[in-house]
Amino acid sequence: MRACAYVTQRQVAEEAGVSRTTVSLVLNAVPDAHISPPTRQRVLDAARRLDYYPDAAARRLASGKTRTIALVWHRAPDQTYRDAFLPGLLDGISRAARRYGYHVLFRPVAVDEPNGTYVELARGRHTDGLVLSGPRSDDDRLHRLHAQGFPLVLHGRLQDTEIPSVDVDNVRGAMTAVNHLLGLGHRRIGLITNAPTVYAASQQRLDGYRRALEEADIVYDEALVRQGNFDEESGYTAVIDLLTLKHPPTAVFIASDMVAIGALRALQEQGFSVPSRTAVVGFDDITAARFITPALTTVHVPTFGLGWSAGELLIRIIEGDQPHQIHVELDTELVVRESCGAAPPHRPGPLRGCYVNER
Amino acid sequence: MRACAYVTQRQVAEEAGVSRTTVSLVLNAVPDAHISPPTRQRVLDAARRLDYYPDAAARRLASGKTRTIALVWHRAPDQTYRDAFLPGLLDGISRAARRYGYHVLFRPVAVDEPNGTYVELARGRHTDGLVLSGPRSDDDRLHRLHAQGFPLVLHGRLQDTEIPSVDVDNVRGAMTAVNHLLGLGHRRIGLITNAPTVYAASQQRLDGYRRALEEADIVYDEALVRQGNFDEESGYTAVIDLLTLKHPPTAVFIASDMVAIGALRALQEQGFSVPSRTAVVGFDDITAARFITPALTTVHVPTFGLGWSAGELLIRIIEGDQPHQIHVELDTELVVRESCGAAPPHRPGPLRGCYVNER
DNA sequence: CTGAAAGCGCTTACAG
DNA sequence: CTGAAAGCGCTTACAG
Fold it and tell me: What is the CATH number of domain B170-301+333-358?
């Protein structure tokens, strides 16, 4: 069903009275093909007049380049959680791609899908490179792809790998959160992780927590630490458990907003109102953080920036530039709202106080 | 930089001891090419042994089909608003595409971008068809594309057009919301629109509101109607204005959750607590609706279903099937939470009561 | 049941 | 400064 009649390079050549080679050279602005300005102009005019667009498939086949990158999107156990990052990330990648003249292919991987089915994109030459969001450590086809020299960037780092990656500086992000609570005078600060610590990000946020305490000369107390698992439920349970302590913490750093939302609810139900009795700081700055009551103070993750960086890094690799940084770590920012107890004076109006504190 | 060495059809042919034609026929499972089972098996084995993937560009060039569809994503004035729909929509389109063996290209259109730049995807044969989310009525390149017979599906209907589309049944959705309030005994029901009524969806939701009132023999009172404009701010302002009435409404249907969130805040600030003094029902069921206090009763928009339908409809059109429905309208569902005052008994736990009421 | 051959619409050495 | 020609890796009538 090719309803449209497409105009080809040949027609442009005829219209301009030159060879197809010349048309190609002009339209691709090949640097060292010295085309006389008048010839150039004639080709350009002809192309415009005929409203010519080169055929993508032909161009790819001849050049060996697809000028396309793909985003492979692993669904996480908790869907809401990942959905919060998709728009920003995708927008960032798309903008970077467009900036460099690339297209972007989107490829979700269903939870029940076997590992590595997305390599078809690479092996079938649909794309020049892949951004993989949410890599699995047991994904050996991924490592094979990398070993073969296929351009790859991970969103979310994998342990012990040389595959280029983009992520937020989780250690420093966590430190910012904890330092903020310390600055408000808290000394017994609990931690609920965002996920089991087999996840690199989770371990790093835990490390940041420990380091901030250490720098404040507070001994790390494992009794104040609980494990979250991506969703509200896990935060709820973790808090209930935390409150069985004889001396519950006066503040809790919860390394995921989604988990924090469940935690907030548990705290309120147990009469540990936030922030008056317990201060809470989250991590991620998902959309809901602004809307929950009390509005959540949290560590903002720059999703657009992550997407942009991933796209740009990948394209550099594809084009053979030597990127000076193979693992990009972006800074986070603390967003002070209400749940930490350091909220700005309450202003009436549709928006909850939400200024951003630079680190 | 082609680091990988790719295996070609020719190598598979040699390995299997057959011609390239035969390889193509077998691998594409061409229906009426009668290949003997042993030959077929030999080809399959050879392909597997060599880990062969056909070259996408070559295939496209030879077949004239890209087996790719694109999602063109217009950013709306309010970004948060649209972001709420992207994950579901994109997931739906991607799943439909995969189901039929298509890939999906994602193409955001920046707010400051001139109209119709995305037609390059069509004219350059990057894709066999386009799903356009958030079409502009003044986009004449869109109409030209359609006139040329290029496969197109809109997400969000355009007035007076024969271009196939997918949307939610806005009229019935609004009626469900208003009927619910009527069922709770409300008689003075206000309306805040989701946007100016030049937007088709906005007009339709207004129509649904009027029709529900009419069927309940309540005269339409323009004094109870205000205009929202996508964001919280507009909802906040609209409520402030509404409350200047001598007899403010006892319930308000707000045709957008984002607008409703601003409205909720204004109501609470003005002492019209929700739901005890004023009942509120929203529209869209964005993620934040669950998290706001009180949790928002709202009309759920099936974003995944919209994406799936758009993808499937587009693929049917591409493949020349005659779809029996050119304008698909999906049903909505009312989600009863707290803001309408008909909440289920309060249960402790991480999740806010959120059962779904079938229409 | 299988193969030789043309062709898809470009890019890119190479020659002049 | 410009053109003739080979080639990218497939699909698809067509012939046998």
Answer: 3.40.50.2300
